[in-house]
Amino acid sequence: MEHPTFQAYRLHAGAAGAPPQGRFDTLRVDDLSAGDTLIKVAYAGLNYKDALAQAGRGGIVREYPRIGGIDLSGTVLHSADPALTPGQEVVVHGYGIGVDCDGGYAEYARVRHDWVLPLPAGIGLRDAAVLGAAGYTAALSLHWMEHCGLRPDQGEVLVTGATGGVAGIAIDILSQRGYRVCAMSGKPEAEGYLRSLGAHDVIAPPDLSAGIKPLLSARWAGVIDSVGGELLAHALASLRPDGVAAAFGNAGGAELPTSVIPFILRGVKLLGINANSPMPLRRQVWNKLAAEYRPARLDRIARVIAPSDLPQALAAMLERGSIGRAVARFS
User: Fold this and answer.
1) Of 73, 176, 303, 320, which sits with the fewest C-beta atoms within 10 Å of its C-beta?
2) What region holds the Enoyl reductase (ER) domain (predicted)?
3) By C-alpha distance, which of 141, 140, 183 is closest to 158?
4) What global pTM score does this model have?
5) Do 259 and 306 belong to one domain?
6) What is the mean pLDDT of residues 215-238?
7) 234 and 307: one domain?
């Protein structure tokens, strides 16, 4: 099948010691990474990992050139898998797209068929991209927390890094499920936004200059944490007996200066959330996103941008200059 040339935002290797250079290239389908399923991209999300890749931080992308974008939604054009039919609306996230192979920042994407998830009924292409890897991570966190016994009647749930994409969706989902949510953010100007997502309380991050105590006053029944580091250690020390924390980020550092005391004296649980899950779990969680975990306030979280705005929008994410979840519209 013949396809016209199209535009893609690609990262190219910089000079020795310099960050990669991003630019829009004119490509053909044959220029894309190998795959047996071709998708016409509708939307692609902007994620913190994409911003790090553009800045050349963390060694995320190792081979260039590379089309960025770790998640996308779109329609199937053709596939080696007969279960994926032309025109079918799908979402793809993880599996190394935008990192080890070309991702969503293009008008077309070519991927393996077993990476493609048909959208559950009731989720459209825009909302699928607004959810994307971020919404899946939020829902997966709550999925495992509730598996470990978390219930709304047990007390408040703390969401850290609250203005981020994952956190905003988590606040929305939690509030729809009947949880009392406390949002933690270092952006006081965002309080109104966070309350509009369903947060009952908004607090600033604590002063941790004096160090972390093994145990603090027990407040939280659960914690959804995107920060890591000392802040996660502080939250663990503040969990109620049998409380549960889900951790998926390290914006505040990869070290965890805690002790076994919260675990053995209060029985708290710390769950590591890896969003690069096997497909059966993805289907289960996406089905929840279409039903009992369905967010109600995605329009407040979402911001749709033009592909030409990608470089500036990704750079703003690293400067803490963005709130919510941005998606680039390609078709």
Assistant:
1) 320
2) 22-328
3) 183
4) 0.95
5) no
6) 97
7) no
